[in-house]
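Task 17 of the worksheet. Students: predict the tertiary structure of the chain below and write it out as structure tokens. Keep your answer in the requested format; marks are given for formatting as well as content.
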Amino acid sequence: MKKKFLSVFFCLCVVFALTPVTVFAAENTVDTWDGSVDTSWYDASSTEFHITTAEQLAGISQLASEKNLNFEDVTLNLTTDVNLSGYSWTPIKKFSGIFNGGNHTVYNMYVEQTEGQSGFFEYLQGAHVMNLTFAQAQVVMPNTNRSFYHGILAGWTNSETIIRNCGVSGSIIADATSSDVPAVGGFIGSCKGNTSIFNCWSIADVTTTSPDMPAMVGGLVGQWENAADGAQIIDSYFGGTVSVAESTTSAAGILGAGLSFNGEVVLISGCVSYGQLKVPVGVEENAVHIAALDEDGQAENCMWPSDGKTGVVRLVVDWDTGTANADPNFDESVCGQAVADFSSPNVIQDLNANAQTEKLWILGINGYPVFSYQTDRIRADYSSVDTAKAKIPINLSLYTDESVSVLNVALDSVKENMCVDNQAEVDAMAKAIEDAIAALEYKDADYSKVDEAIAKAEALHKDNYKNFSQVEAAIQAVVRGKNVGEQAEVDAMAKAINDAIAALEYKDADYSKVDEAIAKAEALHKDSYKDFSQVESAIQAVVRGKNITEQAEVDAMAKAIEDAIAALEYKDADYSKVDEAIVKAKALNPADYTDFSAVEDAMNKVVRGKNITEQDEVDAMSQAIETAIANLEKKPIGSSKPDGPTKPVQTPDFPTQITEGQTDSTTVIKTGDNSHVVLWGSLILISAGIALILVVHRKKRN
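Model answer:
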């Protein structure tokens, strides 16, 4: 990157450097605090004083202005924070003593000088200033001010001045219209000689408004000229904003321009710049994070953002033409490093490794390095808050809305990124969260599953089960009044009831009717029936192991067997012996026997249609015929022929077996001759009458 300073700018710098510095006297404007300035504390015979009020602080400026006191060999100790309330502050004209701020802060300093250098101090010569902070300071350089040096702490410093552990915030606005290339710095306008700056910082907003007049502008120091042995800026940082309006103005974070016309070197070591640099469009190269140094300047161990802007520019001065150009071959990495993430632990580690003060650097609230003594810029320890938050139950829906609301208020009240100075407040936030957590109230437990399980149990018929006592015991074990934090216990109660229900065993179904039906079927002689298969199928369809809830199915099995038994039909009885006996009887000639009526009577008593269970009766019929035949007595020989014609024997009205050669079922009794026709005719009529009587009698029996 190439940077060019216009010749007019460089020439003015040269002229200014070679011209004795004139200190412009400031107007003796006295601003009072509550109407007074207190100088009563000063005693010329004393060498150390304690400044305890704002009026006494204002008295320093008055003594320096009115009595030309520079406080050489005098130590002033500020023992309290001071609020200047925005009243106009007259810079302390010249200070050569020791000012120990005691780590106190001066708030709301307002400086607007129409003439003279700007700052809390106008000029520091051989002074020691330490442990002092300016907050919300406002310094204005109006366009009527022709002076060269403007800063918040001091307009300019000279040899043997040491500044340590000091810092500024606020703003400085310079209109350089009436001045010849002024030096404007957020901390100090210009340093000369062997001024030393240690552990100092600026987060001020530095602005030049004149578009036609160049200036040397730095976030920390505007310009360093004619350095002397020991000139240095050590372990300091800038984190504010530099904005310039003129296109040739040098704008840098730590040092706007380092021009040593006497060949002496100013050293910038261990410094950090992460502020914003704003220059006119087209001259972005004029923005430099650390410094623009001539060949006698030196920077080391510095850090700046890797945002595309240059960290350090080495100026090559052409004294003949009065111009200075950036050395294109200069390697800025010898001065330090560009950093992508300042919050990286390595950044703080590297800074502390090179710092002259042990453990000087620490990560600030803003995510950038600050000093460990800047308790107002270091994040408080939020570990107690984090610990408290970690104790918040994951599921807040378990708690009452009122108690959760208190917790939410405590959480909403947490202010992030408070500083160490407010640690007590941070700890109070943590305690508020802890207290709110302790006060959380559980909602009532949900007993709906328990109630459902109980209702399920009560809907059961306990007498259907072998043992219902476990269900009853589980219901009796229910404890009401649990909260949602004990929901698992309540759910366990519901589960115990449901498990007991699931473990219930029904009583066995009553198979007695089935067994009776089967026994009844087994007692039957299957061969006695036409079709016994339906009974067997009904028995085979019996399913054992049914429980009492399936009793209807079991009863249906019994009924199926009973119905199959009821539907059985016996086989017909065997009449073959009856038929054989009848055929045998019919083959006989009744005339051959003394009395054939018993045979005829036995045949007449035969009843057809009997079934197999009545076989004995049928067999008795055949036996009766056989017995009657066996008991027949034949007539004596010679008396077998009747006197008249033979009358046929009328057989009973039931089928008989017909022997071969017979043409009908009527047996005709043969006669030996045709004598006694009348007698035989009478016998025939008598027989017919008897047969008719027998037929009528038989029909009546049937």
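Marker's comment: Residues 383-438 form a domain with the Substrate Binding Domain Of Dnak; Chain:A; Domain 2 fold (CATH 1.20.1270.90). The radius of gyration is 68 Å.
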